[in-house]
Queue: 4 jobs
Job 1
Amino acid sequence: MEGANGSYRAHALILPFPSQGHINPMLQFAKRLVSKGVKATLVNTIFISNSMHAFPSSFINVETISDGFDDRGFSQAKNCEDYLTTFQAVGSQTLSHLIKKLKDSGNSISTLIYDSLMPWALDVAKQFGVLGVVFFTQSCAVNNIYYHLHKGLLRLPLLGPSVSIPGLPLLQVMETPTFVYDSEFFSDFYHASINQFSNIDDVDWVLCVIFYEMEKEVVDRMGKLWKMGTIGPTLPSVYLDKRLEDDKDYGINLFKPNTSACMSWLKDKPRGSVVYVSFGSLAEIKVEQMEEVAWSLKGSNCHFLWVVRAKEEAKLPIMFKEDVSEKGLVVTWCNQLEVLSHESIGCFVTHCGFNSLIEALSLGVPMVAIPHWSDQTTNAKFVEDIWRMGIRPKPDEKGIVRREEIELCIKEVMEGEKGKEIKKNSDKWKKLAREAIDEGGSSDKNIDEFVTKLVSTQSV
Ligand code: UDP
């Protein structure tokens, strides 16, 4: 095939859900496809395109569609349901226009790879007769829970104290996603999560962001249901196999990072001495919880680097930044990969967003897991009990994790006996992550198989 960018073997249109944690892994997957001779076009919403701080990569083409909320994105919608239904209506139309436009300009596509939160995109793929490929950015354990609920194989409310689901370890009710155990409160989010599976039996290929070794049993089970491939970890190549030229960062930042301030602050800190703290791009932490985290960091007496997004800053205790300035640095956003891979980092206090978790696992950084919502409660269980890369401080009866608990866990991870074991496991996972994506590794093979399928598919 010949296109504007020279010759290529197939053309993939890639449609992530418009949030940082969904764009990053799908953009990285696009880069992997490009490295294998596939042309990749990333589709952003108009709002994301206007608010991002950098252009992803000269190897990736970028196009836009509308979610119906061009000015302010999700925050412009009345609620989650309003956002998703509007996105479905406006997105389907504008996506169809885009595919036609590409075709008319000699850039026909062979596949539409879409985020699992937008199952309607499969209808658009079918309408054009191209391969419809769903991309899951959460763990297969979490996908498996939603799948069981969708099929009615698991019913709500969950009757505790523990829940047994085929392919998964026994889970306490509170270790299932918050959208499941608190499904009435989160009813919009619950329905969106279940809806990911509404047409899964009609998709041509299922791609998962993990690598096989992370969740062998559940991957084997799900692999019997659909044509499925694990393709992770999806970190920039410089942090893994180094096979992709110039692939040093994700490339799309929805917040402006304070990179130089962070890196020069970390520079002279002793090896393994710094606690890095971040609750990701979306979490709105309760004021009481923020205070407990703040005082635990001060109490730990460790150096710490804490990302508090501009919108959350007012929740910090008065004069906190000034008070701790000898030990701690608080920034509104950082280049998390550069920070996590810095030798001074000894532990990551994380909300267990799935990207953060895979990043920590791939870079071998031990964790203190303080899940906030969604899949993070299940992810935290896996961090502690399955991957054995961290510990979970226990919340009190109000759901707040108290400073003493956090402080104890930080100390245990940084200097305790359990910490030594965790460090050993972290080194093991770091090695496995690299092997999976390296040439001939489980994910690399899956990507090759997928590319072979694309090449043999007619583009439209
Ligand atoms: N991230 C970053 N800088 C920060 C905090 C987070 O670059 O200061 C990135 C992080 O590397 C990850 C993403 O933002 O890739 C957050 O995704 P995750 O799934 O961890 O959490 P979410 O934001 O979706 O809750």
Job 2
Amino acid sequence: MSLDLPAVIADITATMASMEDRGQVATYIPELATVDPAQFGIAIVTADGRVLTGGDADTGFSIQSVSKVFALTLALGKVGDQLWDRVGREPSGNAFNSITQLEHEQGIPRNPFINAGAIVVADVNLGGHEPRVAIGEMLRFVRYLAGDDSITINEAVAVSETATGFRNMALANYMRAFNNVRHPAELVLGSYFHQCAIEMSCRQLALAGRYLMLDGRHPGGGRVISPRRARRINALMLTCGHYDASGDFAFRVGIPGKSGVGGGILAIVPGRAAIAVWSPGLNASGNSCLGTLALEELARRTGWSVFSPPDEGD
Ligand code: GLU
């Protein structure tokens, strides 16, 4: 039976609208605490270029840690595999902002998707420039990926995190002691907090993720990254993209994904679809509560788990 994707999206959107437990919005960044939790959006871009949406798919939200995927892509473009001398590629099994593991591992973060790893990536992307140069480069890159110049940074979110991001400041300074952060911590974090404060809708985020579904190609022509690099980034998303709940996400959904505390998740079905879901309420692991449920249901209905044989669902 052929897949009726619009009907699947409509069903999932209706189911999510009826859910009572929507989790809790993040409050440790005060500006994020102001977001209405009663929102849910989904957007799917298929390999043949169709864009399907449901719910609040055109409402902008703070992409937060989803930006780590784009930052990693940029950093690999700058320093290639040398990045892996400074950041590992293993799931952490610890909270996204843990400091204890760093001490045991001599200032080398476990992977680029926990905060410490993303701070090293931001240090690489800073590359001796002023933060505004790196921030501008990141914004231009995301706009190019999405094919949408209207994407902006929410300055209030960046300011809010700058005022309260003591833990990230501690991580950056700690890694500076190991020479794994090479610029002053406030410059690296100035860049990192702005990268996290990029605001996108589900539609824009799914469009920005197309290169990872297309083995590194930009649908507008040319290549963003090599096929090998695209596969490796997808592998990291599957193993490390959901903090210390990455194993559970792979078990339940089976699709590479990266979540953020703004409630967004970017999920990639190689060769088939780039998906963005958003709902601001988080579960106990800090991942979007409804976003995770929606992706679980989508994978079940479509057979898009990367562990499913082609064209077979449940
Ligand atoms: N800017 C957030 C932080 O560093 C991102 C966290 C996240 O989305 O996981 O705490």
Job 3
Amino acid sequence: MKKILFALLCLFSLTGIAQEISLIPQPAVMKVNDGKFLFKGKVVVCYPKIKESGIDAVVENFVKEMNTTTGVKVVKNRLKNGKKLGFDVLKSNKKGDAHIVLSLDENMGAEAYKLSVAPERIDITAATAAGFFYAFQTLKQLMPRNVMAGVPDENVKEWSVPAVFIEDEPRFGWRGFMLDEGRHFYGKEEIKKILDVMAAYKMNRFHWHLTEDQGWRIEIKKYPKLTEVGAWRDSKVLGWGDVKPDGQRYGGYYTRKDVKEIVEYAKERFIEIVPEVDIPGHSQAAVASYPEFLSCDPENKHEVWLWQGVSGDVINVANPKAVQFAKDVVDELIELFPFGYIHLGGDECPTGKWERNAECQALLKEIGSTNYRDLQIHFYRQIKEHIAQKPADKQRKLIFWNEVLHGNTEPLGDDITIMAWIGADRAAVDAAKRGMNTILSPQIPYYINRRQSKLETEPLSQGYGDETVERVYSYKPMNDVPAELHPKYMGVQANFWTEWVEEPEVVQYLMLPRLAAVAEAGWTPAEKRDYNDFLQRLQGEAKYYQLKGVDYGKHVFK
Ligand code: ACM
């Protein structure tokens, strides 16, 4: 094997195409051939009309990006006829033009693509706009890093792509990243950068954790105090141990206009946004905004929380107005986010306030239970039934953190998704056995806000520095899971909690390059994953991060 690699390297050197091929995530099948496709003169992207909308925008964006980043003239040409485009069709184009030819194959998977780069032309085949998008992402990753970063680079003298044949599709349909903006708020430019990096790694779900004890970050028309009151607190830092709240007024939120802008940005990158309002626990900011109907003890003072940890000030699930509140908020989320899923949280919800509240005690009796966790499930059931009454285009599936499994989930049915974080592997099996879908986001090692090294220079965050790039990469999703449960496993997700992280640059530093490791677990067939190989392919990403203007952990870069 080593000899073959050496021979290949010599060949590349002799032919002058020592261009590295370091794709992340590694494609399912790749064969490297001799030669390269040269972008010069005019490059015509020929593409068919397909029923599904979106291909025009995919080609348009690729053309724009290539023009900006390379200066080579790339144009598009939509062809009316034929699914399969032969050279005969191309004759209609000016002789001498180079061609990138897109063809439709409806039998391929939803996100699959084939990419064949030869010196004379590039062929791409896919069934959907998403498939063509991923092929372009791969194509850009085969070029100098500035192309993916979306910036020009005057030092590059030749724009070429090494000859390869790639046949690719993801292992899992869910390849997610969650950002907690409840604890700290970063703003839409930061979110766009994150979406760009996710798209570079073919990730397709941005789970936006928008509410917390420490802040409510999304404008809800019907409840303006959620952002007038709930988005602001009297401390930037969150108290924990010796760290005390600093008294600095801090906050922020996304207006409906901001959300619409981000939704469009994500859609262009084939990323679905999964908004999360974490209710009825982790809700002190909401309770502080409307204590008169959300609180279990409205007579007491409620403020947006200044501390880390788990607040006991949860929503009074026995108050009909609180149930109506939840339904109204969900209605506005449905309107704002035209995607398949809404996350209602469900983690770490203390029941102490319910246990001391007469309304909650009475409701528990009424539903015939002695387990206060079942009040939480009763609350969710009412929201689920509310959504079920809506027309088809307003239907949304619900996701919950895995603590929901601690109650009797029968009233919720099995058409929900469990996001498994604590005891993730076991919780996911439990969910799958109950007939529910599940997503693996194991706290260790997929909480990529945790310290990634033991160096004293590391920024403050959770953990002890054990969640290194290698540790994250080495997690094996769906390991030893009985085959009959596999269809319930939707995929993987990295989560980022921000109790300690005030600055966007620190989010980037901790997130990268570990996000790339999770992306590869979500995309690449298990048998093709190899940490040493990944590490080698990762080296070029430092340049991409620098050009993109994002910080990253330097530990594994030489
Ligand atoms: C969680 O980490 N509390 C979901």
Job 4
Amino acid sequence: MAKPYLSIVIPVYNEADNLENLYTRLINVLDNYEKSYEIILVNDGSRDNSEAILNELHKRRPDQIRVIHFNGNFGQHMAITAGFERARGEIIVTLDADLQNPPEEIPNLVKAIEAGHDYVGSIRKKRQDSWFRRYASRLNNSIRSRITGIVMTDQGCMLRAYKRHIIEAVVSSKESSIYIPALAYSYASNPTEIEVEHSSRAAGESKYNLYKLLRLNFDLMTGFSLVPLQMFTLFGIIVSMLSTLFVVYLFIRRLLIGPEAEGMFTLFAIVYFLFGVTLMGLGIVGEYIGRIYKDVRQRPFFIVRDTLEKIND
Ligand code: UDP
Ligand code: MG
């Protein structure tokens, strides 16, 4: 198959109950759209029946459907990266496999790229997630935009379109903890956002628990900014200055009034507070060092076990 105009990249992790539906809706939209396309489905080490279904989908449309099987679970963003490495389209679109992002929106994203934008983000019109997820995301969004200076109204929505050169820049970034929408945004010169529909998960359950979400957000903060470290330094400076004043005050008080032994528990409170803050600071430093450690080891970010594709160019 010759180089397609569109590449659709979809990470798949235990989505057996969604794949058939996803296939039908995608094919339906793209066949009517009259642009050449390829769909790259990256199986991120699924342990359900996804693998067999993906193989079957490839057989149905060997010219359009490419399947990459990972050797284990390396995470959504690594799965997308693997898809990007292999994507051949002029325009690359990402979406989730669980049908929360309607494939019917793809033409709208492409239209915005064709209008001259190199990055099209999306804002979920009526987000269909639990209130906890919605509020946690809102908080994350505002902290992240303040710390990293990256303007994304809705960072969590993966339905996005990119021009080829942006994806090439993302692929050439050799970082192990990446957050694709933000990284791509930082390479874009003319980004925009459009509103898209959002549905609740068609089948199965979210692959992100609170812990995984937290990890992802740390990736975002540490990957794009040194502000957490700098805030910490600033806090340290302020505390030392206040402590110096306090020491001077105690010294003068001691000379004028004499020794004091009261207020022990207040002292405990203050010490515990500062101890907590110190541990947090160590943690922040650790987050950065851990990522540096991961990157200096230079282990592969993911391992591809098998690919099913028919390419001849
Ligand atoms: N996903 C993946 N690897 C993972 C977790 C998720 O490839 O380790 C895929 C998943 O199959 C889906 C997309 O990433 O296509 C988004 O995951 P999910 O719907 O669970 O996230 P949520 O919508 O709850 O944020
Ligand atoms: Mg989802």
